[in-house]
Amino acid sequence: PVSASVLNIYRSGESELFPWDADIDANFIANHPIVVGSFLEEHRETLKKLGYTFIFRGDRAVILDLDDSARMDIWLSGPQDVEAFAIRARLCGVRINMFRDQLEGSVWYYRPGEKIYGNTKGKLLHCDWKEHNACLPDCVREGRGIGKDGCEFPDRFVHLDV
User: Fold this and answer.
1) Between 106 and which of 6, 37, 66, 137 could a Cys-Cys bridge form, CB atoms 3.0 to 4.6 Å apart?
2) Res 29: pLDDT
3) Which helix (H) or strand (E) is 117 found in, with range?
4) What is the 3-state secondary structure (H, E, C) of the chain?
């Protein structure tokens, strides 16, 4: 897993995904070179038989079921030192491997701080649906902005001391 999917393992466990996350992000690695577009085209029919298709996005693929009800952002890369991915965990019932720098980078990236969304507008994170069961924390705080708590979730998730 990469990005928020790594953090998800520590905050929500093996089988509970973040309620606001719409997909799983992962890097599929090999110990040999991979040309992503060619690899995907070679396996298009196999994916279709399994009930999936893909949208090629240059350095990654969005793999989705044929009804487009589930998506995964998948990076395929090689050659990689597969043995370096020595930290093991489970995500959605599947064994996954990670490496130390990946974990440290995820902890740093998702540390307490301003939560911004929107690629160009940079708005403070907030929920427009009052009492919504998967509401995001209110980083706007009625115009006061971020507080000393780093705008974190008031829940059972793990909080890091940084």
Assistant:
1) 6
2) 87
3) strand 116-117
4) CCCHHHHHHHHHCCCCCCCCCCEEEEEEECCCCCCHHHHHHHCHHHHHHCCEEEEECCCCEEEEECCCCCEEEEEEECCCCHHHCCEEEEECCEEEEECHHHHHHHHHHCCCCCCEECCCCCEECCCCCCCCCCCCCCCCCCCCCCCCCCCCCCCCCCCCCC
Question: What counts of helices (H) and strands (E) characterise the chain?
Answer: 4, 8
CA angle 114, 118, 120 (to 5 degrees): 105
pLDDT digits (tens, 9 = 90+) for 11-65: 666 666 665 566 778 888 889 998 888 988 999 999 999 999 999 888 788 898 8
